[in-house]
Amino acid sequence: MTIKINPHNAERGSALIEFTLVGIGLLFVLICTFEMARGMWIYHTLAHASKEATRFLIVHGAECQARTACLADANLGTFASRVQFHGIGLVPANLDVQVFRGGTQVVGSAGGYVTLGSLAGSTAVWATTANTGLPIQVSFRYPFQSALALLWPSAGQVKFNLVTLGASSWDTIQF
């Protein structure tokens, strides 16, 4: 008795195995692409928020304190809400802020950062002296946690998935 092997039946499972081997790599590349895009989006949002925060501060300087219409906006709470408006998707409790005016730190302490959430609702005025012509520098830090660590074995012990993104902007106070 001879057994005939149909070549089509013998190769039927190999396509599934080849697709699985190639598919795992393609899926990993796809997830990496999405994670890189998400990181770039967060960085771009952070850079945009820092530029808009700097713009807000250069037009709401000490001279703003003398104008009633401007006075309501010249506090740290309004500054925080402007940053939140332009930093769509950034969690205020995770966003660290520091502001320097003419080399002196006016938001944050001892060279450190404060969270944006701690500034929300604050009525403290950020500038009370003549500042026209002084440089303003706004710096932000934001943690980026990659979802790729979920796919990595022993991700609980390895903390490679947390990266702190930073953005900074400066300009000269106009008013």
General description of the model:
- The protein is α+β, with helices and mostly antiparallel strands.
- 41% of the residues lie in helices and 19% in strands.
- It contains five helices and five strands; from the N terminus they run ααααβββαββ.
- It has helices at residues 7-10, 12-59, 68-71, 76-86, 116-119; strands at 96-101, 104-107, 114-115, 135-145, 162-172.
- Strands 1, 2, 3, 4 and 5 form a five-stranded antiparallel sheet that branches.
- β1 and β2 (104-107) form a beta hairpin.
Q: What is the beta-strand fraction?
A: 15-25%
The helicity comes to 40-55%
The average pLDDT score comes to 83
What is the gyration radius calculated from CA atoms? Answer: 26 Å
Q: What oligomeric state do these chains adopt?
A: single chain
The figure for the number of domains is 1
H/E order of the elements? HHHHEEEHEE
Broad shape: rod-shaped
Span of the ends, CA to CA? 100 Å
Low-confidence stretches: none
* Overall number of strands: 5
What structural category do the secondary elements indicate? alpha+beta
What's the total helix number? 5
Give a quick account of the main beta sheet: strands, pairing sense, barrel closure.
5 strands, antiparallel
